[in-house]
Design a protein that fits this description.
52% of the residues lie in helices and 8% in strands. With 450 residues, the chain is α/β, with parallel strands linked by helices. β8, α14 and β9 form a beta-alpha-beta unit. The longest helix has 46 residues. It is built from 18 helices and ten strands. The protein is globular.
Length: 450
């Protein structure tokens, strides 16, 4: 074995001492060679381990040196050629804050959506308490009122002097009426001041001057003061709708409007009307301008029968309409259309009262004057309507003309059933009814967003 080893390294061993030295030297070289191999193996293992860590990190991050360079080259190539880079959008939850108008629309639409057709139709009428209860004179709201409102969910109740005995009695009747209603009601009255003051005449509220007397002061602030006084006591007792102010011009001799008008000059009257509307609305009472397009240019009274105005369309546009525009701009939410016949405004509908004329209601008031509030007829039990039209016929014509509400038909049940039938047979669409209800309930629900 030794010889093989000696032969392998080609070394001579002449004696034992030399042999021992040789062996020691051989062992020393072997140890160094083994140590070197061990050190080399350790270094290699450490290097491999380190490389594994680096490669693992690169694999996890996806940003190896080679990949990074490739991606950088790609970006530079796209930028150089002005190519667009599509970055997928991450889905995010966007919260849209609704405006007050949008909130009101949602409340209104939600309310209308659950109303049966019968309630929708009834909601277009404002009637006296006697019209639905059948009593001669209503001075309280009890079981009869509760039953009547359960059957006919009318849009509003209008009270007159005969319904008013005292503040306590009137307030209790109004409060109970509201309690029994399935939907919010208009609680209405004619309280213009002067000769048309239902409450003041009954000893309730404060008497104020006629519109004519206020106009003669040449101080529009007086109109504000009077309307603020009226609106104040109406609001306290529960009224939320006043059929005032009068926006008619007293512009012919013996005008049927008389002292209920602020005067004959459109510019001056516009100021008084604007002030009155502002004051009434500030008291929380909806103001209703009347009687569009203006009944002051006739001496005939629509309470008794037909009344005709010979004013030209140009005259109406320059004067009467200017006053109504001023009231609308001041914030009036409702306009009452009168029954006067104006041939110059109804060329396609000869001899028809303005309250039943599509040319006047829709063409002029809604479209030309851009009024988006509630349009209501004057009382439909007046001679100008009741002597020439049946209650159901007049109600359907008014709605088809563009009116939103029917005031005091001569025969409420007949008018109600006539409109209901018209919707059921398609003469009037249900969506058309919904449009009117939206305008009505935008007023009734306005306090929900305040």
């Amino acid at each position: 074995m030794r010889e093989d080893t000696d032969m392998q390294y080609g070394e001579a061993t002449p004696d034992k001492e030399q042999d021992r030295q040789y062996r020691r030297e051989l062992r020393r070289k072997r140890r160094k060679r083994n140590q070197l191999a061990a050190y080399t193996a350790v270094v290699v293992l450490i290097a491999l381990f380190a490389m594994g860590i680096v490669m693992g990190v690169q694999a996890l991050s996806g940003y190896g040196k080679h990949d990074t360079q490739e991606k950088q080259d790609k970006v530079e190539e796209l930028l150089a050629t002005e190519s667009s880079i599509a970055v997928p959008e991450q889905p995010t939850e966007t919260i849209v804050e609704l405006t007050d108008e949008q909130k009101l629309d949602e409340i209104v639409d939600a309310g209308i959506a659950v109303m049966p057709l019968e309630d929708k139709v009834a909601g277009l009428f404002i009637v006296t308490p006697e019209a639905i209860t059948g009593v001669d004179t209503a001075v309280k709201a009890g079981d009869g009122t509760k039953e009547a409102l359960g059957k006919y969910s009318v849009g509003g109740i209008v009270y007159f002097g005969k319904n008013m005995r005292s503040e306590e009695q009137l307030k209790e009747m109004i409060d109970n009426t509201r309690l029994y209603a399935n939907y919010p009601l208009f609680i209405a009255v004619d309280e213009e001041g002067g000769s048309v003051s239902r409450m003041a005449a009954a000893g309730i509220g404060t008497k104020v001057d006629t519109a004519q007397a206020i106009g003669e002061t040449k101080d529009p602030a007086k109109a504000y003061e009077a309307a603020s006084t009226i609106g104040g006591y109406l609001s306290e007792l529960g009224f939320n709708l006043n059929f005032a102010p009068v926006a008619d011009l007293n512009n012919v001799e013996g005008s049927t409007i008389g002292d209920r008008s602020y005067g004959s000059d459109a510019t001056e009257v516009s100021e008084y009307v604007s002030n009155a509307v502002t004051a009434m609305e500030e008291q929380g009472v909806t103001a209703c301008l009347k009687h569009f397009p203006g009944i002051g240019s006739t001496s005939e009274d629509t309470h008794d029968g037909r009344a005709i105005s010979e004013r030209t369309a140009e005259e109406f546009s320059a004067e009467e309409f200017a006053v109504f525009r001023a009231g609308i701009d001041a914030g009036a939410d409702m306009v009452m259309v009168g029954h006067v016949i104006v041939p110059a405004l109804t060329e396609q509908e000869e001899g028809i009262p303005c309250s039943l004329s599509e040319e006047v209601v829709t063409g002029i008031l809604r479209e030309e004057m851009d009024f988006d509030g509630v349009i209501i007829t004057d009382a439909m039990n007046m001679g100008a309507i009741s002597e020439y039209y049946e209650s159901d016929q007049a109600a359907v014509l008014a709605l088809r003309a563009g009116c939103d509400m029917i005031l005091m038909p001569e025969d409420f049940e007949k008018a109600y059933n006539g409109v209901l039938q018209a919707v059921q047979d398609g003469t009037i669409s249900e969506e058309r009814i919904n449009d009117s209800l939206r305008r009505i309930y935008r007023i009734k629900y306005a306090d929900k967003i305040r």
